[in-house]
Amino acid sequence: MPAMTETIKSVVEELYGLHRTLVSEGFDEGLEVLRRRLPKAAGFWIEEFPCGQERWTWEVPPRYEVQEAYLEVEGGRRIVDFKENCLHLVSYSEPVDLTLTFDELRPRLHFSEKRPDAIPWMFKYYDKTWGFCLSKKVFDSLPRDKRYRAVIRARFQDAPGLKVGIGLLHPEGGPPPGGEEVVVSAHLCHPRQANDNASAVAVGVELAKRLAAKPLPSGSASVRFLFQPETVGTVCWMSGHEDLIPRLRSAVILESIGNRNTLAVQHSWPGGAIIDRVTDAVVPPIAPGVRLLDAWAIFSADEKVLNGPGVGVPSIMMTRAPYDEYHTSDDAPGIIDEAMLEEAVRAAEAVVRIVASDYYPKRNFKGPVHLSRHGLWIDHHQDRPRSLLNQKLMLHFEGRRSLFEISQELGADYWTVRDLAERYRAKGLITALPRGELA
Hints:
eight-stranded mixed β-sheet, four-stranded antiparallel β-sheet
């Protein structure tokens, strides 16, 4: 096992070489990396879904095990070998042992015109087919008058099933009364890809560490971390926990986030949710040049499940896409920048802390509060801005706007507003209503 260090990128390096396809030994090994890396407070566990089981409109794919896969010139040299680089095999290729002419083989070979030295990553999860990937330079060098032997020794297994790794961090004092949660999701699949999506998993791990080291204030939503095969893993988990959907405030999807590009945040669908407004307010100072985009402006990932039909959890995606190395062997640890990972962690943490701790303050009083009698007076001679803000707040405790919305309306810092509101709540003068974003 690689030496454990304190860098975020070290998680990327540990995950990178694993054959992390949808349901596979490499994916399971990735989950064990997370078990070691996540804070104990997250209580990491794994849920398994049987292969072949119906999940909403999807079917859980079989487990894929590769013993060997190679392509060689008949009686001559080996051209590609799964053992040297798992990207040489189209993911979920069927087993074959065939001798073919070049013309017969040609439709089964995949390469990148844009990156002729790189091996592309291809997958056919739901198609019964097979193929190999190689660089354009190697493809161009292949003799056209020779015969080729294509060997894929692979098995589709019924068990173990699809696995999802979960961590759950509660605020100070334990779960909130209504059991509300914010989801942070980063898919763990994609073999031998550093940015897509090991970088996002690493950001998720670091975010969990920081939320464990400094828990959210009492009464905040819990934060659930999901590490799953992209799309189908989220479908499996959400379909198995439909009772949680009404309690999910919002979600942050982390995707391809460690390369050297400006951060991009795709808003939720259809937009205008609290999480979108929080993002627009807090991310630009942290990530200069951030691109604030509509939903699916670049592409979509697991937000199409969480924010999808019949689910409707407002979900943003944080990414640094597009990038030239996407889905090729060039998506390696060398393109990952620790400063980009750190910036992403800080941006995600700022959003999650506000969204999880926000609530609707509802007054339990009439008329202006006698501040000094209740120990709420702030001397305007000592701190005039805070004194005025403290008094203005009582006009906004109507249960129709959240603390974040009130802070925006008053042009004040969210955490200052929340701190002042908590003083009223401690005296029983206001009640904290749930966010109710899905109501």
